[in-house]
Amino acid sequence: MNNIFNLSEAPALSAVLIRKIWPRSIHSMAIWIVGGAGIFFLILAVIIGEIFVSFFAWSLATFGVLLFFYGFIQHGFSYSGRIKLNEAIMRIKKGEDINLALFFDFYATRAVLNSGPLRNIPSIYSLTDQLLKEKRMKWVCMRLGLDANQVRKDLSAMPFVSDAGDLFFRTIKLAAHHAEHRNHKFIGILDLFSALAVENPNFKKYLFEHGIEPKDFDLIVHWQDHVQHIVDHRRRFWLRENLFRGEPIGKGWSGGFTPLLDAYSTDITQAVQTRGLNTRIIGRKKEIETIEQVLAKAGQNNVLLVGEAGVGRETILYGFAKRMLEGKSIEQLNRQKLIQLDLSSAIAGLKTIGEIDGRVKQLFSEAIHASNIILIIQNFHHFFGQSFADGVIDISRAIVPFIKSSHMQLIAITTHEGYHEKIEKLGELKDAFHVLEVQEPDIMSVRQILMDSIMQFEYKYKIFFPYASIKAIVDFSDRYIQNVPFPEKAVDLLEEVSVLASRNKKNIVTVDDVAAIVSSRTQVPVGSVQEEEKEKLLHLEDLIHQRIIDQEEAVSAIANAMRRARAGISNTSKRPIGSFLFLGPTGVGKTETAKALAHVYFGSDTRMVRFDMSEYNAPDSEQRLIGSPATREEGTLTTAVRENPFCLLLLDELEKANSKVLNLFLQVLDEGHLTDGWGRKVVFTHTIIIATSNAGAEYIREAIKQSKNREELSKGLIEYLLAQALFKPEFLNRFDGTIVFKPLEREHVVQIIKMLINNLSTQLYHEKGIKILADDNAINKLLELGFSQNFGGRELRRIVQENVEDEIAKKILSSELKHGDTFVLKSENLSR
Fold first, then answer.
1. What are the beta bridge partners of residue 738?
2. Helix-, strand-, coil-residue percentages of the chain, each rounded to 5
3. Which helix (H) or strand (E) holds 192?
4. In the 3-class helix/strand/coil scheme, how is 166-216 assigned residue by residue?
5. CATH number of 455's domain
6. Is residue 548 in a domain?
7. Do 591 and 506 belong together in one domain?
8. How far apart are CA 199 and CA 197, in angstroms?
9. What is the CATH number of the domain that holds 620?
10. What is the pLDDT of residues 681-694, one digit of tens each?
11. Quick one: pLDDT at residue 366?
12. pTM for this structure?
């Protein structure tokens, strides 16, 4: 281990000592005084005469010297040895002793110096306390939802562990690795802070107790590092990035004359240049490099970006423009202009095909003759159709000769649906492009995207977002908003949360604020579980049994799955919340159990989406479920789940579905998503899937007669289904539970009839003030009319409707039943 640390050799130590004698506040005051004096002497020199010119010159020189040393004290004293930080780290790994104090910057040197005597090895506890006094550390703590002063107070109350310097040496070595990873030339206070979060046992414990994960801590530190990097770079006007912010002299003369194109286009490179080159483009390096390689090729060099709106297609173009402006792209592309053509506006008002083709040819000709333009066209698929009737436009004949030319460079943007439905069918047009699919960024990239833009929202709405709230926006939008892609859905949610917080005059946005908005949008409970919901989850079996009689195993398995999902135990899985195969004879409550669960968990029976799988037994059934560009029909399954991702999906009579359909659901059960006919991803993560089947009904009846227990019955039934080749083993294994519904006994049917009568009585009392009473003879009569061993209780609801509801309706209309009356149901009145 490297055990050398001598702060007296640190180059920045001189600057720190100077600052102790001459603080920054006094230095700043001196600059203002001398600067003001210079202006005063300049005015006197102009008004009175040359006698004050020498005073002005002296003031100006002094001002320049003071200003120079103001920056030099902080940044000028640095290690100028032969080796760099990364080389020093490599030598330390090989066992060489190197004084890492040589690589400490001004602030790190000052923090270590203030932690103890110069010649002594400082304590990591004292160093942590010193760092928590720094503004940047206070910023980090604030984002983590902590108060730096309170953290110092709490840490000082914790017992210290004697380390004899070992922890300090491990800390500075780890800080050096952090600095190298962040591309720092020197070790700074943020690098030390990250290292102390690992090596200081008290600080590490404190962060753990406050629910702060190490990766989140490092992300916030890296965020502060990036913010400081932007501030420092903007101050240094002489840097290449800042010099390129201005428009080059003679830029307008660098290409050809494009009057028509200028009228209908936007210069993306100029927009990026105006906004500044410090903007980060996160997670799109591969796509940008592919665009560069294609555009730089000889011959056909056009790119077709295929992706849904909101995934960041335009961000890729901004990143590409930034690289060209910085001169970091391929040589022949540097300083090219990226021009976005508004083709819809350009051809608006034109009435004939000839006029449209002529306008398009003129625009493309100007782009080619300019010789420095890369053209961009949004929604490329809108301009290709089968005829000119009804506003359908087809410009393929006009543009194909241009895009096949080696002088034309075009970036077209379309969606998956537009590509498959329009462009893919035009072979000559499609072959002229390199197709580049743009996928959604991952969660970590989206977090960084939000962190880069969050300060704009905070400034605009006068609010503050702790990191926990930013993380919640990304996680909740990923989990609960399925019909919009990343990063758009996260940015939209950020905007919505900001507006609501500002309207409610909240200064700090909490995780609960984010959860409340997501819950309002999706009608699904999000965030911390409230007391009322806790009671519902803990007693879910009882709530379901208010509508379901018997079937204890099915109800228990479903309730346990719901509790796991809501408690967050299964959140890391992308599979559905729960998936169950209900097996049993007709009329035993399989469908009613699914309805009861939808009502209890999602709040309404309408949250259940039912598919009769007997309708999907044809060879083309798979296409009907996921959609097909060939038929231009959306998928029945994918559309239903995309529009209502928080639902209970009921697949009735699954055994009757086509084998291709079963394979489709095999993917859904295993991976929690599938891709529709247009290439769009549909997520089933927040769906409960229940499949029902009557297969093996006779086997179940025979097993019940033989008094087999539930375990024997379930195992034997699965073996029977496999032997009959009704389902494949891998398909059955994908379900969270295969649950057998046993045939209803007479006492269960009696309870169901009483429940139906009670529900009807409650409804009628609330609406009409009329109660219903039924004696045992009437209940037994309804049992005889509505129950059979073959159909179970399937006919009960119809029998109650015909014998009870119809009779009550007649008596109400004839005024025999009025508000406050009681209708007594008697067996002699039941005949059907």
1. 581
2. 60, 10, 30
3. helix 189-199
4. HHHHHHHHHHHHHHHHCCCCCECHHHHHHHHHHHCHHHHHHHHHCCCCHHH
5. 1.10.8.60
6. yes
7. no
8. 6
9. 3.40.50.300
10. 898 988 999 999 99
11. 95
12. 0.82
